[in-house]
Design brief:
The complex is a heterodimer of chains A (180) and B (577). Chain A has 180 residues and is α+β, with helices and mostly antiparallel strands. Chain A folds into two domains: 77 residues, ACT domain (Alpha-Beta Plaits, 2-Layer Sandwich), CATH 3.30.70.260; 71 residues, Alpha-Beta Plaits (2-Layer Sandwich). Helix content of chain A is 29%, strand content 37%. In chain A, the strands form two sheets. In chain A, strands 5, 6, 7, 8 and 9 form a five-stranded antiparallel beta sheet that branches. Chain A has a four-stranded antiparallel beta sheet with strand order 2-3-1-4, covered by helices on one side. Chain A is elongated, with a radius of gyration of 22 Å. With 577 residues, chain B is an alpha/beta fold. Chain B has 22 helices and 20 strands. In chain B, strands 3-2-4-5-7-6 form a six-stranded parallel beta sheet, sandwiched between helices. Chain B has a six-stranded parallel beta sheet with strand order 16-15-17-18-20-19, with helices on both faces. In chain B, strand 6, helix 6 and strand 7 form a beta-alpha-beta unit. In chain B, helix 11 runs antiparallel to helix 14. The chains are: A alpha+beta (180), B alpha/beta (577). At the A-B interface, helix 1, helix 2, strand 4, strand 10 and helix 5 of A face strand 6, helix 6 and strand 9 of B. The complex binds thiamine diphosphate and magnesium ion. Magnesium ion (MG) binds next to helix 18 of chain B.
């Protein structure tokens, strides 16, 4: 099973590379990675699915938490969490298949976002296994082009975010002493 | 209070506010504005002869003092030349800040002349790195860099600065505070854990203190000594921790590990409680991990939570700064002493005498020979003149192991070596840095004939600044440590390990205006080292030693540490005999 890691990190140049570099330096293959800004524009939330041997998973989380730009790294596979993925798909299929495609799409909860003479563009979300099935089914109707978003996950446990406070520089200390 | 200043001047202002007094560096195109600003700045710039040595010298400075060392290089080749020194500092947790020049921001990404992706290249070589694209960020970043380098588990930090940022003008306001919300520095250990640790120590029958470089970084030597004495437990110090407990201390055993002493390795193997302080259970110490300290519970105190349980599970972890944890630990130990010390007193006394028995049974080989200088003899002579007080900067190889085994270090920050990365070419430049940091100290650079030849350019730096470094080349005519492995594990098929054409030392030194001498007879040794030590300036002493000597004891790679090979033809004794 893949390790799914959720990170909260500073939205700064190089921050992404620090996280992925930590994994590639250990020879781990990243299966998927998603990252986007949070409600606080200075922060990003990242979800990584990566193939790490079980006994090394704690070590990976600890190493990530050591990165200066990382505010918090959690192992979502350790506690209760949910994760979802988005699939965008173009299906090219003959006219006679169209009705069936729509029916199948409905079963998977997929939405049609574009329709043309050649076929449809569909959008589906769900857990990764369900999306695998969806893709298999659609392939049986014709040519498909698929883009998957990779997993995004959220922990269901409340987690306290512990942040470090500002530090006074020597100049600041000297100024404070001068004031006293 | 803010004046218009150039970026270069602002950088120097920030460095002065960090109490930087010396920068080891090498200039180039994009750092021209910085060097121009340095022209009339009180910070001393030391021109080394290769950027790798700037990083090593900054490390020597940091290792000798505990303060952040600073080095500087130009963009492209200057920055890439720094990398070995950065990784070396990373492995041994040494605080340095490296300033690198970068091409003008507009040119970044255009394959401009001397452009390299320094930010990308140094990312895995550093604790953290920065590229400053906006002059307004510069002061903040510089202070963040020093804070990150020197706090928590120390390490190297790179600040990459494009030429136009050096040249730009800005109003400078000193930075009074920095904020790194994701940078967690663990300080106070958990009080309950500390109390439990103290109980465990008194409950142990065969406790052993296993102290490492973390003690030295934390300036924890005197607290360590109190702990050892309160508990009256034997102690080993790793190659990074030599001097954390004085070598002359009665409870001190020696260095453990691949070339550690018989007593140290047997003590680790037989102990029932390892008190692991600022160590990382490195493979060169543990040998085959599964067989390491098989009877011991482990108390592991470290500032880096990722070290706890990384290699060996801890029965009692304490995450914290030894500077704060050790005094508390000593206090609780002392509190508990009247009620708890008696229970296992006798077992602990027996344990101590067993350890002393091992020490006497197989001490390090210090024998001398009549016709050739044995390497061990050379180290014994250096030890005699040092008296446990000199700074010894070592290169990497057999000589390093003998210098670690046979020279006493009675204070922290005397033994300076590349422990984790094992970088040849470290000895001489680190001695330069150490001598600048400690002009009052006798500084030896002990090198092999291989490593010395990686550092020859720095003879110019030593000559130019008149640094009284005592350079001792232990000349065995081989890349000795590699030859040892080829001999022992590759059927003596010696390949690419012979070092012929070694330069004549007196002529080489003379070419730089330095005194030099070559000796090859045991009776010359004492006077030659005395001459080097009494020479007010630098001295290059080339000591021809017996070429085929191997370092023992030796734990073969992948072996358990109690399965040591103790000497040349003798087979390995097995545990329990
Ligand atoms: C930069 C670098 N290259 C290669 C090595 C591998 N290596 C380790 S010890 C050693 C031999 C060192 O020879 P010398 O400097 O003569 O020291 P000796 O072992 O003979 O005392 C070598 C090549 C290394 N540690 N560092
Ligand atoms: Mg040699």
């Amino acid at each position: 099973m893949l390790q799914v890691i959720s990170l909260l990190l500073e939205n700064k140049p190089g921050a992404l590379m620090r996280v992925t570099g930590l994994l590639s330096a250990r020879g781990y293959n990243i299966e998927s990675l998603t990252v986007a800004r949070t409600t606080d524009p200075e922060l990003s939330r990242m979800t990584i699915a990566v193939d790490v041997e079980p006994h090394l998973r704690k070590q990976v989380i600890k190493q990530m938490n050591k990165l200066i730009n990382v505010l918090q790294a959690n192992d979502l596979t350790e506690g209760p969490s949910v994760s979802r993925e988005l699939v965008l798909m173009r299906v090219r299929a003959p006219m006679e298949a169209r009705a069936n495609i729509l029916k199948e799409a409905e079963i998977f909860g997929a939405r049609v976002i574009d329709s043309s003479v050649e076929g449809f563009a569909l959008e589906a979300t769900g857990d990764s296994e369900k999306l695998d099935e969806f893709i298999d089914v659609m392939r049986s109707y014709g040519d498909i082009d698929v883009t998957r978003s990779g997993i995004v996950g959220v922990s269901l446990e409340p987690r306290k975010l512990r942040l470090s406070s500002p530090v006074t520089t020597r100049v600041g200390q000297a100024a404070a002493e001068a004031r006293n | 209070m803010s004046n218009l200043m150039s970026g270069a001047k602002i950088l120097l202002e920030c460095l002065m506010r960090e109490d930087v007094d010396v920068i080891f560096g090498y200039p180039g195109g994009v750092t021209l504005p910085l060097y121009d600003a340095m022209y009339d700045n009180p910070i001393r710039h030391v021109l080394v002869r290769h950027e790798e040595n700037a990083a090593f010298a900054a490390q020597g400075y940091a290792r000798a003092t505990g303060r952040v060392g600073v080095c500087c290089a130009t963009s492209g080749p200057g920055a890439t030349n720094l990398t070995t020194g950065l990784v070396d500092a990373m492995m041994d947790s040494i605080p340095i800040v490296a300033i690198t020049g970068q091409v003008t921001t507009k040119l970044i990404g255009s394959d401009a002349f001397q452009e390299a992706d320094t930010f990308g290249i140094t990312r895995p070589c550093t604790k953290h790195n920065f590229m400053v694209k906006n002059l307004n960020d510069l002061p903040q970043v510089v202070h963040e860099a020093f804070y990150i380098a020197g706090s928590g588990r120390p390490g190297p930090v790179v600040v990459d600065i494009p030429k136009d940022v050096f040249q730009g003008q800005s109003h400078y306001t000193p930075v009074t505070s920095i904020h790194l919300p994701g940078y967690k520095v663990h300080t106070d250990g958990h009080a309950g854990q500390i109390r439990r640790a103290a109980h465990m120590m008194w409950e142990a029958k065969r406790p052993l203190v296993y102290a490492g470089g973390g003690i030295i970084h934390a300036e924890g030597s005197s607290d360590l000594r109190e702990l050892v004495e309160t508990l009256d437990a034997p102690a080993v110090c790793t190659v990074m921790g030599l001097g954390a407990l004085p070598a002359d201390h009665p409870n001190y055993i020696s260095m453990p590990g691949m070339h550690g002493s018989y007593a140290a390795n047997m003590a680790l193997t037989e102990s029932d409680l390892l008190i692991a302080l600022g160590v990382r259970f490195d493979d060169r110490v543990t040998g085959r991990l599964a067989a390491f300290a098989p009877h011991a519970k482990v108390i592991h105190v470290d500032i880096d939570p990722a070290e706890i349980g990384k290699n060996r599970a801890a029965d009692l972890p304490v995450v914290g700064d030894l500077r704060r944890v050790l005094p508390k630990l000593v206090k609780v130990l002392a509190e508990l002493k009247p009620t708890e010390a008696a229970a296992n007193h006798e077992s602990r006394q027996n344990w101590k005498s067993r350890v002393n028995g091992w020490k006497q049974e197989h001490p390090y080989d210090r024998n001398t020979a009549g016709d050739v200088i044995r390497p061990q003899h050379l180290m014994a002579e250096i030890d005699r003149l040092s008296g446990g007080k000199a700074i010894v900067c070592s290169d990497v190889g057999q000589h390093q192991m003998w210098a670690a085994q046979l020279i006493r270090y009675n204070d922290p920050r005397l033994w300076i070596n590349s422990g984790g990365l094992g970088s040849m070419g470290f000895g001489m430049p680190s001695a330069i840095g150490a001598q600048f940091a400690r002009p009052d100290k006798l500084v030896f650079a002990i090198m092999g004939d291989g490593g010395f030849q990686m550092s020859i350019p720095e003879l110019a730096t030593i000559a130019s600044y008149g640094l009284p470094v005592k350079m001792i080349v232990m000349n065995n005519g081989y890349l000795g440590m590699v030859r040892q492995w080829q001999e022992l594990f590759y059927n003596n098929r010696l390949n690419a390990v012979t070092l012929d054409c070694f330069p004549q030392a007196e002529m080489l030194a003379g070419a730089y205006g330095i005194k030099g001498k070559t000796i090859d007879k045991p009776h010359q040794l004492a006077t030659a080292i005395e001459e080097a030590v009494h020479e007010p300036g630098p001295f290059l002493l080339n000591v021809m030693v017996s070429p085929h000597e191997n370092v023992y004891p030796m734990v073969p790679a992948g072996g358990a540490i109690n399965e040591m090979v103790l000497g040349q033809p003798k087979p390995a004794p097995v545990a329990g005999d």
